[in-house]
Amino acid sequence: xxxxxxxxxxxxxxxxxxxxxxxxxxxxxxxxxxxxxxxxxxxxxxxxxxxxxxxxxxxxxxxxxxxxxxxxxxxxxxxxxxxxxxxxxxxxxxxxxxxxxxxxxxxxxxxxxxxxxxxxxxxxxxxxxxxxxxxxxxxxxxxxxxxxxxxxxxxxxxxxxxxxxxxxxxxxxxxxxxxxxxxxxxxxxxxxxxxxxxxxxxxxxxxxxxxxxxxxxxxxxxxxxxxxxxxxxxxxxxxxxxxxxxxxxxxxxxxxxxxxxxxxxxxxxxxxxxxxxxxxxxxxxxxxxxxxxxxxxxxxxxxxxxxxxxxxxxxxxxxxxxxxxxxxxxxxxxxxxxxxxxxxxxxxxxxxxxxxxxxxxxxxxxxxxxxxxxxxxxxxxxxxxxxxxxxxxxxxxxxxxxxxxxxxxxxxxxxxxxxxxxxxxxxxxxxxxxxxxxxxxxxxxxxxxxxxxxxxxxxxxxxxxxxxxxxxxxxxxxxxxxxxxxxxxxxxxxxxxxxxxxxxxxxxxxxxxxxxxxxxxxxxxxxxxxxxxxxxxxxxxxxxxxxxxxxxxxxx
Length: 556
Hints:
Elements: E1 2-8, H1 16-33, E2 36-43, H2 54-64, E3 70-73, H3 76-79, H4 83-95, E4 99-102, E5 106-107, H5 110-140, E6 152-154, E7 157-158, E8 164-165, E9 169-171, H6 173-187, H7 192-201, H8 214-218, E10 236-239, E11 242-246, E12 253-257, E13 264-267, H9 276-290, H10 293-300, E14 317-319, E15 326-329, E16 333-336, H11 337-341, E17 350-352, H12 353-368, H13 371-418, H14 424-445, E18 453-454, H15 458-473, H16 479-489, E19 490-497, E20 502-508, E21 514-515, E22 539-545, E23 553-555
Parallel strand pairs: 1-2, 1-3, 3-4, 14-19
Antiparallel strand pairs: 4-5, 6-9, 7-8, 10-13, 11-12, 15-16, 16-17, 18-21, 19-20, 20-22, 22-23
Helix pairs in contact: 4-5, 6-9, 13-14, 15-16
């Protein structure tokens, strides 16, 4: 029986040794049963209440691919603590003819799923209530309920028994200076976006070392987040503003606001950074902005509930200066998100969405599949493949020579030791050379990757996809289909806006037409399903849009 292990621990306070202990116990059971052990799937410091665990998802994927017959774990709660997820896991693995065996419960059946699932669900609920009770007690004592706000440090102390005392904070004076600066600039009339640009221009790292953004400063009115709305800066600790609930479809935790009557508020004057007058001035301005006619009208539309239409190029367009996404500016324009919101990019120009779409579609229709361009691509592709293959051969030849030299040195050391010469330096050199030999042998043992080759129907695939794209564009109701086709043709669109022209580079999925050697059914696959290849083999089209569109150049 082909057997795999799943091991997990949930808390950052636990150690990787927990994983090792679980694997060791499970392997002993595998040996006792006489099964064939393959490998282990492990998730570190991840809750069993979530199914969004990388190795857990990989286990399900491999089960569907028939890669093992039995999955063994220390207990059923290692696989999941969620009642619904346990039932779904059992159902999926049963469909794949995979047995679930645990050291605690034995082979899992429908009875285990029902009883243990219920017990685990009750355990999670009880744990949540106890955790909440403990956090509330801590907050009422003026200690943090978790997390660390910008401007503060965690104070690490021990009690008389040597156990850590949690929840104490102290002011970080260097960050407190930045907090006061933010309040001063906003009270002086600067916008959160302008303040973010000023801080980034001065190379001041934001919370968690990230660039400053206007949302970091402005925050959310109802959730009382952001620098300007953090009550802790005036010595008021507010806890239980929101709770989390898991989306049953996606498995992700979503925040839900609690009524203010349920908030727990404690005064912590030792943590005050902003004086009350400054706080009042800032919040008077925030309230004024919120009650203004423009913002009031916008709120009445409830724009956040409306799904924005998916444009043809949504998610594809990147700034050529910094590599960040270009986002919508108003209805018809795209601009660099980093330039507008953090000031960390100099590309302040915008481009009309319709102009960009026209350039991209024109390149696909009139330039991409010209016979001379395909011929140029094929020639450039094979030239690049040959160059990389030559470099790879030279690299392997160099490693073979190094291995031969190491073998000669080792032989000399072995002879010296055989003659009775034993010194600490000699033994250290011996270990160093043996380790180097192992590394070189491992590198040479790797099979060089087969040279990719172009799919024989490359041009035909692209012609059909471009035809389908234009057919979809001719139907106003088929924009979603057109967007999907376009995303299959293009991986990324890089835009550089200059004074007199716009340079647009399309990195296309033409590389997905490349068939890796040995793929028998590749010719039956459609373009989006072809295996992607390393970046050096990818191709692009470059379009320069000035007074008119110049002919596109095709390059590898």
